[in-house]
Write a structure and sequence with these properties.
It contains 17 helices and six strands. With about 375 residues, it is mainly alpha-helical. The protein has a two-stranded antiparallel ribbon. A two-stranded antiparallel ribbon has the order 3-4. A two-stranded antiparallel ribbon has the order 5-6. A hairpin with a 6-residue loop joins strand 5 (about 305-310) and strand 6 (about 315). It is elongated, with a radius of gyration of 38 Å. GO terms for molecular function: peptidase activity; zinc ion binding. It comes from Urochloa decumbens. Pfam families: Rhomboid.
């Protein structure tokens, strides 16, 4: 009897909690719709950008500004961009469909699309705050590399999580789940920013460590907003953790920059090896049926163990005193063999004579 009453109490408490969360969501949506808070947020974002970038004496991070401009332009699609850019419904990222069809366009472009003006405003406000701090501390090049790494890691980890969760239950829900927005990358950036911080922050009335605040923010956002992508946010946080681990593993060096440098080094070493091999082949020459053809930078240089004919400039072995190409005798041996070889050593044979001697040699 007591166990039955306790189970009833637990079920009633869970129903009350669930109804409380749903009521809170309904009140929040009603408040937003009544006061029309989702409209006209772009001027507020513009004021924040002006206050951040318009202060005298402060540096202006270019990568953060470029990311802001890219997201805003893709959302409003002014002028020819409306015809060039794909539609939001075509670019929305679905984890299971990506695994099945390898939709890399959706993989890389979906973070830059947003569903509403409020969605864009919240993400860009967070990007302005987080991006400026990170870019000023890391530098523009390393910050851009970090953003690219977090984008790929967050999307990839979300795909892996969807595969793992689909094995535990019904995978049909993941076929209907499409996500867009820059929030996954933003959660990764906040994780990198607060990953090694031990100071206390205040979050929705709760005092917590800064490195745990991003987890609390994810669960609070999931509780208040029903249409957010839990896997996308979780993938962003895990991507930030992986980035910090890789950076610690590589002793502070940026993982993407290190990967690019390693790949460039491998390609460069292979090209150098091929060029070295080609130079060695050209330096040694190759042997034909009529003698050895050798390449040298200087025409007067004679390879060791060979002598060059003064008539046709063919290289011949020292074992023979007669040129294999034109049958001209070697100069330093002409006087030793007698006067009947003198005509061969003067080096003034005509073209017809050389041609006839070649034909005679081939007939033999």
């Amino acid at each position: 009897m007591g166990s039955g009453m306790s189970s009833l109490r637990r079920s009633a408490a869970s129903e009350i909690m669930g109804s409380g969360v749903s009521i809170l969501r309904q009140r929040l949506r009603r408040f937003v719709s009544e006061y029309n808070l989702v409209k006209g947020m772009m001027p507020l974002l513009g004021l924040q950008v002006v206050f951040e970038y318009g202060r005298p004496g402060s540096d202006r991070p270019p990568v953060t500004a470029a990311l802001l401009a890219t997201n805003v332009l893709i959302f409003f699609r002014p002028g020819p961009l409306h015809r060039i850019l794909p539609r939001t419904c075509d670019i929305a990222f679905n984890y299971q469909l990506f695994v099945k069809f390898m939709l890399f366009e959706n993989f890389f472009l979906s973070p830059f699309y947003h569903g509403s003006e409020a969605h864009l405003f919240c993400n860009m406000t967070s990007l302005l705050w987080t991006g400026v701090m990170l870019e000023r501390s890391m530098g523009s090049v390393q910050f851009a590399s970090m953003v690219a790494t977090l984008l790929g890691l967050s999307q990839g980890i979300a795909v892996l999580l969807s595969q793992c969760f689909s094995l535990l239950g019904d995978s049909t829900a993941y076929y209907d789940h499409h996500c867009i927005g820059f929030s996954g990358v933003l959660y990764g950036m906040i994780t990198v920013l607060t990953g090694q911080s031990n100071y206390i922050v205040w979050l929705q009335g709760i005092d917590t460590l800064a490195k745990y605040a991003v987890w609390a923010d994810m669960f609070i956002t999931q509780a208040l907003c029903a249409n957010v992508s839990f896997l996308g946010h979780l993938g962003g946080i895990l991507a930030g953790q992986v980035y910090l681990w890789l950076k610690h593993l590589f002793k502070g060096r940026d993982p993407l920059t290190l990967l690019i440098s390693v790949c460039a080094g491998i390609v460069t070493s292979q090209v150098r090896f091929a060029l070295k091999l080609l130079r060695s082949v050209l330096r040694q020459g190759y042997i034909t049926g009529r003698g050895m053809v050798v390449y040298h930078s200087s025409a007067r240089e004679c390879p060791q163990g060979l002598w060059r004919c003064s008539t046709c400039t063919n290289y011949n072995s020292l074992a023979t005193d007669i040129c294999e190409m034109c049958s001209t005798m070697r100069k330093d041996c002409a006087f030793l063999l007698g006067q009947h070889h003198q005509a061969w050593c003067n080096g003034e044979l005509s073209v017809e004579e050389i041609h006839c001697r070649r034909l005679d040699r081939l007939d033999r």
